[in-house]
Amino acid sequence: MRSLIYNNAKIFRYICTGILCTLMVVVSEILEDPEMIFPEAEALFIGMLIADKPLWNISKRLFMFIMGISALAGLWLSIYRELFLRFIFDAESPGLWLERFSMLAAICVAYAFVSFLLITYQAALLPAVSACVLPILTNAHSWTYPVSVIVVTLATLISNSVAKRANLIPRAGEPVDNDSKSEAKNFDSAEERSRLLACFPIVFAA
Question: For residue 90, what are the CA distances in angstroms to 87, 177, 195?
Answer without folding.
Answer: 5, 61, 39
